[in-house]
Design brief:
Chain A: Keywords: Membrane, Transmembrane, Transmembrane helix, Transport. The structure holds 2 protein chains of 2 kinds. By secondary structure, chain A is mainly α. Chain A has 15 helices and no strands. In chain A, α1 packs antiparallel against α2 (about 35-45) and α5 packs antiparallel against α7. Chain B is of the alpha+beta class. Classes of the chains: A mainly alpha, B alpha+beta.
Chain lengths: ~375, ~160
């Protein structure tokens, strides 16, 4: 068969399969991310139906998926919100960082994977999935709840932390010397601060350049700008994903909404490809040996997120039931954790890191939203009795 | 009464306050224009036990329902404070001379010296309506002036 024909057949089958899985997830009321990962496992090396030709194509699609995920995430926030959140919640944000980066880092060190893998695993257990959590909040009608701003500002804090963390991780993974690494990190921090400053002061100029009444022009300009900045960021070893995130932050207001609506279908397509690609890279036969460890890690980091949420909510003067809800809302892990693990795997980290991260995210992306759903009546009952 | 405003990063804004009876209510304003009317659980004051999603039109309707009588009430209170000034709410009944005609036709200010400050229609307040404003049966005209002049306006709208 012709090469192009096989490519289309394979890619089409994958997307169709994802569509069916997505429909199942919707019906079950869970996030489709774990199902996409499982699909990737099935299609990858050692899976039940390995792909022959389309893997390279999917790899490029996955890179685009990361860019689009972070660009749209950046579009959700504007620079003012980021600064306000940083000011008001720095302490809770730091507690979140310390409590939740610890399980991954300690696990990697205990396993003898070395300091670089420890930094990567710290990121894997740290970041809550803002996508899944936002969906849980809106599905359960928790957006109006008084603890919700606490949860949202923690998510903002985490996303900002990522803008600093990803360049550090990229520098460490590329095996730079301490001095070169420090320069890279300094460049990254400088870039992040400059972009925030530009977005705060001169965001309107960027908007004036990008804005267009024609949605086609707007789409091309926004994606073009994001890819360009991502490319520059990648070249500076700052991580392409962070570049795209910063472009998203610099755009705000009405323009950001429009761009978000235009990008949503593209993001959904390529993000799904990204999750599949991560599954593709993971050999399913490697999962059983790390499954118990992943479950333990998931359990521990569930407890640490609960504690984080409870602490942050208590500081905001929220009662007991609300504190529990804040903690539960923070449990889901998803896109960022896979992005981090993906970077580590691509740089040739320990062979068990990929399967461990995949299993870990599988558990928490599936269980997080379910936990929130199951626990809701329980919390209400406790609050009624108290 | 204190209205608390909270930023919801990535979503929008939330305003909330406690009523005198101790219930908390709030409004979440999404950036998309959606409004959520939120009522908090008395047993668990942080939880929204009722969330009513409102689009632009529905939110406007609710505002007017809640706001219209308040504006007239406040107007009345205002005029009570000024000696010799009266405000009347005059219904335009079907079959009366000015139902369906522009308000200017009644030449209220010229004939009586009283002023029409608002027209309330289906709960909506039109403040300072111009002479071209067409009156319809069921409208309530809010008129301000001395006791004599406002009474004269009442006669004009009922008999012509």
């Amino acid at each position: 068969m012709h090469h192009t024909a096989i490519l289309f057949l394979e890619f089409g089958a994958v997307l169709l399969g994802l569509g069916v899985l997505g429909a199942l997830a919707l019906r079950a009321g869970i996030s489709p991310i774990p199902l996409y990962l499982i699909a990737g496992l099935a299609f990858g090396t050692g899976g039940i139906l390995p792909l022959a030709t389309s893997e390279e194509f999917i790899a490029t699609g996955a890179e685009l998926g990361v860019i689009l995920l972070l660009l749209t995430l950046g579009l959700e926030y504007n620079a003012d919100e980021l600064v306000t959140s940083l000011k008001g919640n720095a302490r809770a944000g730091l507690v979140d960082l310390v409590l939740n980066a610890a399980p991954g880092a300690i696990a990697a060190l205990l396993l003898g994977w070395g300091p670089v893998a420890a930094v990567a695993m710290a990121g894997v257990t740290y970041a809550t999935s803002s996508g899944i959590t936002a969906k849980v909040l809106s599905d359960l009608g928790w957006i109006g709840n008084r603890e919700t701003p606490v949860v949202l500002s923690l998510l903002v804090f985490e996303d900002l932390t990522m803008a600093v963390y990803l360049p550090i991780l990229t520098a460490m993974l590329s095996g730079l010397s301490l001095a070169a690494g420090a320069v890279t990190v300094a460049i990254a921090l400088g870039t992040v601060s400059v972009v925030l400053l530009v977005a705060l002061r001169y965001g309107r100029f960027i908007e004036a350049f990008v804005a267009s009444p024609n949605s086609e022009v707007l789409l091309l300009k926004v994606i073009g700008l994001a890819l360009l900045v991502a490319g520059v960021a990648q070249q500076l070893q700052v991580s392409a994903a962070v570049g795209a995130f910063l472009v998203g932050i610099a755009l705000s207001g009405e323009l950001a909404h429009e761009a978000q609506a235009l990008l949503a279908p593209l993001r959904d397509l390529f993000a799904a490809v990204f999750f599949v690609f991560f599954g593709l890279q993971t050999d399913p036969s490697k999962i059983p040996p790390v499954a118990a460890l992943a479950a333990l890690l998931a359990f521990v980091s569930m407890i640490t997120k609960l504690a984080t949420g409870a602490y942050a909510a208590r500081r905001a003067g929220i009662a007991r039931a609300g504190r529990a809800r804040a903690g539960i809302a923070l449990i889901p892990r998803g896109e960022f954790n896979i992005v981090i693990a993906g970077l580590a795997v691509a740089a040739g980290a320990h062979p068990d890191l990929g399967p461990l991260a995949a299993t870990y995210v599988l558990i928490l992306a599936a269980f997080g939203p379910l936990a929130a759903r199951l626990v809701q009546p329980l919390i209400t009952a406790i609050a009624k009795r108290a | 009464m204190e209205v608390e405003q909270t930023v919801l990063p990535g979503i929008g804004l939330r305003h909330e306050f406690a009523t005198r009876d101790g219930r908390r209510i709030g409004v979440v304003s999404h950036r998309t224009g959606r409004r959520d009317l939120v009522i908090y659980d008395p047993d668990d004051p942080d939880r929204a036990c009722e969330v009513v999603k409102l689009n632009d039109e529905e939110a406007d309707a609710l505002v007017e329902l809640l706001g219209a009588p308040r504006i007239v009430q406040r107007l009345n209170a205002l005029h009570r404070d000024v000696e010799g000034l009266v405000s009347l709410q005059l219904p335009i009944l079907a079959g009366t001379p000015y139902a369906g005609r522009p308000m200017g036709d009644a030449r209220v200010r010229t004939r009586t010296g009283a002023s029409i400050v608002a027209v309330v229609r289906a709960g909506q307040v039109s403040a300072s309506p111009g002479p071209e404003f067409a009156l319809a049966p069921g409208d309530i005209v809010v008129v301000v002036g001395s006791p004599e002049s406002t009474a004269a306006v009442a006669d004009i709208f009922s008999q012509g």
